[in-house]
Each structure stands twice: as structure tokens, then as C-alpha cells.
Amino acid sequence: MTAEPLRSREEWLASLPRIYAAAGCLLRDESGRILIVKAGYREHWQFPGGTIDLGEGPVECAERELAEETGIVQEAGDLLAISWTHPSGELDHPAQHFLFDFGTVPDGTPVTVPAGELDTHRWAPVEEALELLGPARSARLRAALAAAADGRVRIVTTHVSGF
């Protein structure tokens, strides 16, 4: 058996898989409802959040996206869940999604969604949110709620894209 010749660092790096990375926000109101948003170009509702920009970390992304998508300015709390999605027909690379706890805001907190990016928002009870978020995001929500209850970050691995 002959060993493969060593590759250069550049060749090795080029051979590694790339990932899509995003961060989202779990924000609740005093009644325990979860803030979800709806983009017209997606079948399911989603958490406020989005893709991580170059030079930005997951926390910065989540805080920026919450402000951009809802008008709410709030600091990220604990990391609750990390979702790893394997490549699929929908995504040619793996995707990683960080979901952060953004705490609780008073009932009736105003939400302003950006025209052209999102259609609407909803403060949904947990069971309704689980239904509206679809399979990938509802798995994230279950994991995040369990993590918020016991303080242990959850990892969700799936083949179902929610990116």
C-alpha cells in the first residue's frame, strides 16, 4: 500500500466542506408566547434571525437580525441550541444554526417587520409555534426550551433544512 502524497495547506483547505451559518432569536413575551416571523418566500414561519455576515460572530448576527427584523433592540443571552443540517437537495453544504435566548419582553411590545423582507409577525403560544415553524425549526424550538429549562445547550442534527 502506498501512502498518498501530502497535500499543500491550500489544497487541504479547499477539500474541506463549507457550511452555511446563521443565528436566531428565541424571544418570549410575559404570557410565554414566542415571537416568530413570516417571509412570503418561505413555506414555514421562522425565528427572527439570519445568515452570519463576514466578520460577524453568531451573537452579533442574532442581535443585528432581531433589530432589523423586528425593531426590538435586546442583548443576546445564553446559547440554547445549535442545529447541524446535513447537505440535502435543498442545500449543497451543511448548515449550522445558533439559537440564542433573548429573554422576555412585556406583552404588547411593538414589532416592526421590514417591508419587502418579512410579511408579518406573531406572538405564538408554544404549541402553535411548533406547528407553524415546520419540522426543522420546531426541533430547534423544542431543544431551546429544554435548554432554557435546565441550562444545558442542545445539539440538533437533521437532514431537514430549515435554513
Automatic annotation (TrEMBL):
What protein is this chain from?
A: NUDIX hydrolase
Q: Where is the Nudix hydrolase domain?
A: 17-149
| Origin organism lineage | Bacteria, Bacillati, Actinomycetota, Actinomycetes, Kitasatosporales
Protein family (similarity comment): Belongs to the Nudix hydrolase family.
Matches recorded under Pfam families: NUDIX
Is the keyword Hydrolase assigned to this protein? yes
Q: From what organism does this protein derive?
A: Kitasatospora cathayae
What cofactor does its activity depend on? Mg(2+)
Molecular-function GO terms, alphabetical: hydrolase activity
Asked if the keyword GTP-binding belongs to this entry, the reply reads no
Q: Which domain of life is it from?
A: Bacteria
| Coiled-coil ranges from the UniProt annotation | none
Q: Which PANTHER family match?
A: GDP-MANNOSE MANNOSYL HYDROLASE (PTHR43046:SF12)
For this UniProt record, the keywords arranged alphabetically read as follows:
Hydrolase, Magnesium
- InterPro entries for the chain: Nudix_hydrolase, NUDIX_hydrolase-like_dom_sf, NUDIX_hydrolase_CS, NUDIX_hydrolase_dom
